[in-house]
Write a structure and sequence with these properties.
With 341 residues, the protein is mainly α. It is 76% helix and 2% strand. It has a two-stranded antiparallel sheet with strand order 1-2. The protein has a two-stranded antiparallel ribbon with strand order 3-4. It is globular and about 70 Å long.
């Protein structure tokens, strides 16, 4: 392990390749359940659809494994099988503290590095058989769990409190800036803590009778997965077959407002993908705000069209942001390929 950028990308791709089936499986089941159930101003209503609720729960269970699997196999890419246990543990803790997929990336890289260095330690011959099955998993899991709980978790909690208060100070006085900030936050960690702060701020505004804030959030929510899915359709040559499969899943998930459909792409190439989707969601959010879009349900994506005010503006906002993401990310990938040639 040399620790250069290409090695880090290889480790991230290792985690992503194992995580994609969980995204596709869980996401498609969630998408199917939400798409088929009645949409009300309060959101999807499963009270009279027990079978669809069961599909939703199964999909949610599959999807909940995304971050642990991502972290576990990033650690596996660095340190082989001994990295799996601390990687899975770190990813699970990332879920518990609300660190999202970015926390999973940190946990996976940390677990892999800890195990890698433990394996460098010379131990007596009689201890070697139990090192990979007992000693390394326990020590590495304790180290990774401690860092995730005590080092990563506290700053995340403080940052979320700060962001919530900051959004409240912006209010709706400067609606364009508010929409831009909310759109970027929604896309930043795709269902993680920053995303949740923006989403719950929009949902809280519904109770205050202000539907425009949730309208801006609703447009932003679906742009990352739809934009990246569209990119794999428009630029098939720059994506692997596995990424194209993830793109189809992302399109389905975006249609029913699941931002997490973009996670496999962001985990594999965060430097290019995250800024691109932040700009795309910001564009969509601003267009929705300017178009007077109002969302009466605490949800997003095209599926909430029945409870949206100014539907044409809403569709235009999603289309503009998604097209920007697709064209921009394909352009960046082609530029990177030329530089490597």
């Amino acid at each position: 392990m040399s620790g250069n950028v290409s090695d880090v990308k290889k480790y991230l791709l290792s985690g992503v390749s194992y995580a994609i089936p969980f995204v596709a499986c869980g996401g498609i089941m969630i998408a199917a359940a939400i798409a088929l159930v009645p949409m009300t101003p309060a959101g999807p209503d499963f009270s009279h659809a027990p079978f669809l609720k069961m599909i939703l729960d199964i999909g949610t269970a599959a999807f909940s494994l995304l971050v642990p699997v991502l972290a576990g196999y990033i650690a596996f890419g660095i340190a082989d099988r001994p990295g799996l246990v601390p990687g899975f543990v770190g990813g699970t803790v990332a879920n518990q503290i609300g660190a999202g997929f970015l926390g999973g990336l940190v946990a996976g890289l940390l677990a892999g590095l800890v195990v890698y260095w433990i394996k460098k330690v010379k131990v007596p011959l009689y201890l070697r058989p139990i090192m990979p099955i007992l000693v390394i998993p326990v020590i590495a899991s304790l180290a990774v769990g401690f860092v995730m709980y005590k080092v990563v978790g506290l700053p995340i909690k403080g940052a979320m409190t700060f962001l919530s208060r900051w959004l409240a100070t912006i209010g709706t006085g400067n609606s364009i800036i508010l929409a831009l900030v909310l759109g970027a936050m929604i896309a930043f960690d795709m269902g993680g803590p920053v995303n949740k702060v923006a989403f719950f701020f929009g949902a809280a505004m519904i109770k205050e009778g202000n539907f425009a804030v949730m309208g801006a959030c609703a447009a932003a929510i679906c742009i990352p997965p739809i934009g990246l899915g569209l990119a794999t359709v428009l630029g098939r040559r720059v994506w692997t077959s596995e990424e194209r499969d993830a793109g189809y899943a992302g399109l389905a998930m975006g249609m029913i407002g699941i931002t997490e459909g973009a996670i496999p792409f962001a985990a594999a190439d965060p430097v290019r993908v995250i800024p691109t989707i932040m700009v795309g969601s910001g564009i969509g959010s601003v267009i929705a705000m300017l178009g007077g879009v109002g969302d009466h349900a605490p949800h997003g994506g095209p599926i909430v069209l029945p409870v949206v005010d100014h539907r044409l503006a809403y569709v235009a906002a999603i289309a503009a942001g998604s097209l920007f993401v697709a064209l921009a990310i394909n352009g960046l990938k082609k530029l990177a390929a030329r530089r490597q040639a």
